Amino acid sequence: MNYQLVIHSILRWAVVILGLWAVLSAISAILSKREYRNADNKVSLFFMISCDIQLLLGLILYFTGMWFDKLKSGVGSLDKSERFFAMEHAVMMIIAWLLVHIGRSMVKRADNDAQKHKRTLIYFGIALVIILAMIPWPFRAPGIARGWFPQF
Ligand code: HEM
Predict the structure, then answer these.
(1) Is there an atom of ligand 1 within 6 Å of 147 CB?
(2) Neighbour count for residue 53 (Cβ, 10 Å)
(3) For 35-84, where are the alpha helices, taking DSSP H only?
(4) 14 C-alpha to ligand 1 centroid (Å)
(5) pLDDT tens, position by position, 99-121
(6) Using CA atoms, how far apart are residues 41 and 77, in angstroms rounded to an integer?
(7) Does ligand 1 have an atom closer than 6 angstroms to the CB of 135?
(8) Residue 152, pLDDT above cutoff 80
């Protein structure tokens, strides 16, 4: 059993749930004009940490599995599902990870609480859309599609 893949597969739920939590509470905070609380910072921190662990596991899977070798064999020779894991999934998830990190530092530098919530919504919102689009959900094309949960 590939333990890194099992953890990477389960941890996607932490990323999705924490990301949704951060974005939805930013929307409700903007609408109700409430202050930026310690709890908002905690959710954002845990979202970032879950993305950090996914990046680390993803890089291990990428370089210890066949994906990097496939990329080296030439992009033109890859089929749709190979291109998804060798390029699209990895590159887009790294962009999402960067947005989460930039977003957190922009929130820290914001002048007021309203700006903190807006920046959370923009940076985390875009990152979450990318993450949701790039997860190999069971309804994706054959070859790309993986289970809702890891297959033991
Ligand atoms: C928020 C970030 C990420 C999420 C939510 C995520 C999610 C997932 C999921 C759900 C799978 C399918 C697991 C299964 O088979 O059940 C997967 C596979 C994979 N991910 Fe990620 N991933 C993320 C970031 C990354 C990054 C940054 C990389 C590489 C740089 C990466 C590399 C891979 C690879 C290579 C596989 C296929 C492993 C294999 O079957 O050999 N992932 N990812």
Answers:
(1) yes
(2) 14
(3) 38-64, 67-72, 80-83
(4) 14
(5) 999 999 999 999 999 999 999 99
(6) 45
(7) yes
(8) no
